[in-house]
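quick one before i forget lol
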Amino acid sequence: MNCRTIAEKIFLAGVESVLPDRLIVNEMSLKDNCLKIGHLDFPLETIENIYVIGAGKASAMMGAEVEKILSGRITEGHIVVKYGHSCNLKYIDVTEAGHPIPDTNGLRATREILKIAETASWNDLVICLLSGGGSALLPDVPDGCSLEDMIKVNDLLLNCGACISEINAVRKHLSVVKGGQLARVVYPATLVNLILSDVPGDALDVIASGPTVPDPTTYLQALTVLSAFGLSRTVPRGILTFLKEGAAGKKPETPKPDDPVFDKTYNILVGTNRKALEAAKNKALEFNINAVIIDDQLQGDTLTVADYLVQTSIRFKNDTNEVKPVCLLFGGETTVKMTGKGAGGRNQHLSLLSALLLRNNPGITILAAGTDGNDGPTDAAGAVVDSDTVPVAISKNIDPEKHILDFNSYHFFKKAGGHIITGPTMTNVMDIIVVIVE
């Protein structure tokens, strides 16, 4: 049994289950001039205009499915995606922009989306397609700041070890779109949001920084995040000043749950990591491998998570009452506090850390990969390792510990083998970790 190959097939089955073409048709249909979205029904004769907007790695493909259903009934639309994640749309404009670091294309797309949102009126329907990556792809620049300031603060936040909810608490308060503020602009039109979750626990206010959801965070919390991770002295002065003015009540807060702008806003979760794990579990069973979903909200530093994964695997291996082979499935998103200047991502770094711990533990295979097909700023989704990974690398004069210290996992696997390469998958429900214990 080639466990590396099987682990990859199990991972890919999970990804396939959350591709946008499957998710949208499950939630949207048009019959007898009535548009059904989730539990909502919209007789088209009551709707003057239908606008489609969106942001995220999967949003263009989601838009393609919406176009198949609505075709010429779409009045106007604009979606922003990461470079390489676009597709040809007839009625919806698509902009490719920077992710995870925002750029001028993202700024331009945000302005176009806001124009459409402002145009919508009482009898109009706005369909918003959101997925992972929306935070970086919907950038704007606060008063007194520059795009370079936003790029620096994003870079600092992404590499400080903060979790996504902490990062997005800051992002929301440097924006006129995030943290429920897009809903504020769309109102009084009806706003229906189809959301693909890329955050642990599927918190709607965190996905894409919650542009259509009431925001529970405040300017003060944003400042607290910067302080907690030692960023107060390194973020650009304009950023810090803006947040401090907000905390002092000189800037309007993001809309909260009792705000009437949400009276005609509906948020529908169409895809989750749990859904992908269930499909991965079913694929493992097809290989006659016992399968258990351990956790779909895995978080924490990669070093701690690597130890947890290996220790859990050893426990299952040594349990004589456990039917083997067994596939252990985890989903979520770990964090990396960068101190080196190498290339990689959280999944490749996690895999390499796990490989070191597996040196004397044969019979365990661990695959960690992102469902979007991109792990960090690389062309790899992740990597797969076992007890042979480190000894084989050392035999080729490849030093795994040096690559870890340099945070250079990408080039380790480039030389040693083990990369999972999928290309952009056009979806994003965080990461999947597949462990096979023989």
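fyi The chain has two domains: 19-140+175-217+254-271, 274-437.
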